[in-house]
Design goal:
Layout (H helix, E strand, L loop, with lengths): L1 H7 L5 H12 L5 H10 L6 H4 L16 E9 L9 E8 L5 E7 L4 H10 L8 H8 L4 E4 L7
Parallel strand pairs: 1-4
Antiparallel strand pairs: 1-2, 2-3
Helix pairs in contact: 2-3
Length: 149
């Protein structure tokens, strides 16, 4: 039975492999039993073994304005006094300083572009001018998933 799993279902998890064994091969086996056998045979890692990957922290950039991290958080910011909205945040990577905060109706590429443009207007926090005055090229990185229009 493990030979079938090794040959046909080596990249399946125990639940799906048990379903395929039952549907295709007529072998009825409990998911947990198959999971234990797959762990013992080296075909599956339990959660503790899968979580051992350690991600190296990325070093901060050297120059102010060299990299700006942007993110959005949808929330009921004004409780029942207003509609649900998204807070866009621009953070300088070198210093961790908040460069710009803006409430928008929803998180989108369009909203990010408008927020970035607003930072270059007189009196606003200076996303563009910070990068050019320090002589560094500006990069913007979106945290987590890409925003869509």
């Amino acid at each position: 039975m493990l030979a079938i799993v090794r040959e046909w279902y080596w990249d399946f998890g125990p639940t799906l492999a048990a379903e395929k064994l039952r549907e295709v091969h007529g072998i009825t086996l409990g998911r947990e039993t198959l999971r234990l056998w797959m762990i013992e045979a080296g075909l599956w890692l339990d959660r503790k073994q899968r979580r051992k990957r350690v991600h190296q922290p990325r070093s901060r950039r050297d120059c102010v304005g060299e990299l700006v991290q942007v993110d959005g958080c949808e929330h009921w910011w004004f409780e029942d006094r207003g509609p649900q909205c998204t807070l866009l945040v621009f953070i300088d990577d070198a210093t961790g300083r908040l460069m710009h905060l803006q409430f928008v109706e929803s998180e989108s590429t369009f909203a990010y572009f408008h927020a970035a443009r607003a930072t270059s207007k007189p009196g606003a926090s200076r996303l563009r001018s910070t990068a050019t005055s320090t002589g560094c090229s500006a990069s913007i990185i979106r945290a987590r998933l890409a925003a869509t229009a």
